[in-house]
Write a structure and sequence with these properties.
Blueprint lengths: L4 E5 L4 H23 L5 H24 L4 E4 L2 E4 L4 E4 L3 E5 L11 E14 L3 E10 L5 H18 L1
Antiparallel strand pairs: 1-2, 2-3, 3-4, 5-6, 6-7
Helix pairs in contact: 1-2
Length: about 160
């Protein structure tokens, strides 16, 4: 990453731990209910255990993903592990409106061409021509980043 960093999103703090805690408690409760008061039908017990394990797995994934940061440079939006979310030249629009389909405290980018699917829970996801940033991220960091991207793409057109 040779470009200067313009904006940073760092998902630290209470939102991160609240999300991890909620998923962990949900997983633990589902497994507890499946074992302590098993349903009459075995399929429901297996279903509860599978959902509990999935919730615990998602909590672990959320914990690992939210140790990363997002950096905006003049040319790229990049993850701290080096994953390029998108090139700035690929961005068509930024949507952070109240009715937009986007993560909490985040924004949605529409791209010119489809990109491979990727997901870091609580931080960002990419599906087709859409990249979404947000989840457990602080709004005080994502709003300025979205505004800067909007200015960057408006300047290019």
């Amino acid at each position: 990453m040779s470009d200067d960093i313009i904006a940073v999103v760092d998902p630290t703090g209470p939102r991160r731990w609240l999300g991890i805690g909620m998923l962990s408690v949900l997983g633990g409760l589902l497994i507890y209910v499946a074992i302590a008061q098993p349903p009459q039908i075995l399929a429901w017990q297996v279903f509860l255990i599978v959902l509990g394990v999935l919730s615990l797995w998602f909590a672990q994934r959320l914990q690992a993903a939210t140790t990363r940061k997002l950096y905006l440079t003049e040319t790229q939006l990049v993850d701290s592990d080096g994953t390029v979310l998108t090139e700035v030249s690929e961005i068509v629009s930024v949507n952070r409106g109240m009715l937009a389909v986007k993560p909490s405290n985040g924004f949605m980018l529409k791209l010119k061409s489809p990109a491979p699917r990727a997901w870091q829970p609580g931080l960002w996801w990419r599906f087709g021509r859409r990249v979404a940033v947000g989840g457990v991220t602080p709004g005080g960091q994502t709003r300025p980043m979205a505004d800067i991207i909007a200015v960057m793409i408006a300047k290019d057109t």
